Amino acid sequence: MRVSITSKLPLLIKPFLLCLFTSLFVLLFIASQTPLHRLTSSTTTATNSPSISTSADLRIRSGYTSYEAYIQRQLNKTLNPKLQHIWTTRDWDRKVRVFSQFFDNLKRRGLLSNSSRALSIGARVGQEVAALRQIGVNDSIGIDLVPRPPLVVKGDFHAQPFGDETFDFEFSNVFDHALYPWKFVGEVERTLRPGGVCVLHVSLTKGTDKYSANDLYSVRPLVEMFKRSDLVEQRKIDGFGLDTEVVFRKKKKKTMTD
Predict the structure, then answer these.
(1) pLDDT 10s digits, 160-186
(2) Residue of 41, 44, 38 lying closest to 58 (CA atoms)
(3) What is the pTM of this model?
(4) Ranges for the Methyltransferase type domain (predicted)?
(5) Is the separation of the CB atoms in 141 and 129 below 8 Å?
(6) Radius of gyration of the chain measured on its C-alpha atoms
(7) pLDDT cut 90: percent of the chain above it
(8) Using an 8 Å Cβ cutoff, are 169 and 118 in contact?
(9) Sheet with 140-144, side-by-side order of all strands
């Protein structure tokens, strides 16, 4: 009897091994589909996205069932009473001082002037706007989902509430909060005047906060999305958790003599 049972063991193992290999193949196939949440994918949170060859360097975070759900999550941060208290008290002077240094540096490099009409995108309670006005850029305003008069007006950076070619200078350190980065960039280029400058502070090497909607790993996706602008410069910074400053200048319109 022992010999009989032993002789049947290979026959019993074969179906088991076949099932095991099939399961491993299925798991490997599922794992290979992870890029579905990248910029070039077709998901509920990233529809109508352009084709960008460097999609591995820009990933859209999953988890939003609708645009309204995304907006509500952003509002949860902006309307948080504890954060609002911090932003308007102990953080205010420090952030205005640091932003003033950033903007003053941009002035010395010829990228910003006192005569510039400036916009701060995702300005929260308005520290960036206060900093711009403090260094002499008086025609400055910010936009955010929640207005904060007189420094910040209500606006969604996916659809800015301004006309075409309104600003000479636009600044943002909330690019990582854009659910649709190509719309964010498109609105910057729409509202920026020819020759105007856009400065973004982004994180390329560190993780951003839990409210971020995308993760950026190089400037290549930005260069591809800024179709109507030239990359002016890129430099390392220490800006409240963000490590890179990227500067674009919108191309001037060609004339008949060009």
Answers:
(1) 999 999 999 999 999 999 999 999 999
(2) 38
(3) 0.79
(4) 119-200
(5) yes
(6) 25
(7) 69
(8) yes
(9) 152-154, 140-144, 118-121, 167-172, 192-202, 242-250, 229-239
